[in-house]
Write a structure and sequence with these properties.
Number of strands: 5
Oligomer: single chain
Structural class: alpha+beta
Number of domains: 1
Number of helices: 2
Distance between the termini: 31 Å
Shape: globular
CATH topology: Trna Endonuclease, Chain: A, domain 1
Order of helices and strands: HEEEHEE
Strand content: 25-35%
Radius of gyration: 14 Å
């Protein structure tokens, strides 16, 4: 595993701890499917939250927030749909509150809610 991968995994662990300290219940880490990956899946009260974690040592290649571009958001939506389908949720999702959050490390932590 490269140094970047190790740093990313550490950031995901720190993000999970941050969410739990703030009342979230982490359900799953690194959910993978054909459509992509969701770093963390958590419950915030009655809301299912799909969390993207981005970490940067420096701003040389842009900020952590800039890494969540249109291509990434399309993959997140597809992976979330696959996650819901795997659990038997299909069609209209209006009875299940879902949102997409981001936990960013630039290097300080920032929690962005409802990013999509």
């Amino acid at each position: 595993m490269t140094e970047a991968h190790t740093y990313g995994r550490e950031a995901e662990a720190r993000a999970a701890e941050f969410l739990e300290r703030n009342g979230f219940r982490v359900l799953e880490r690194n959910y993978r499917c054909r459509a992509g990956e969701i770093d963390l899946v958590a419950m915030d009260g009655q809301t299912l939250v799909f969390v993207e974690v981005k970490a940067r040592h420096s701003s040389t290649y842009g900020s952590a927030a800039e890494a969540i571009d249109q291509r990434k958001t399309v993959r997140l939506r597809k992976a979330a749909a696959a996650y819901l389908a795997r659990r038997g949720v299909t069609g209209a999702y209006d009875f299940l509150a879902c949102r997409f959050d981001a936990i960013l490390f630039n290097p300080e932590i920032e929690h962005l809610r409802d990013i999509l």
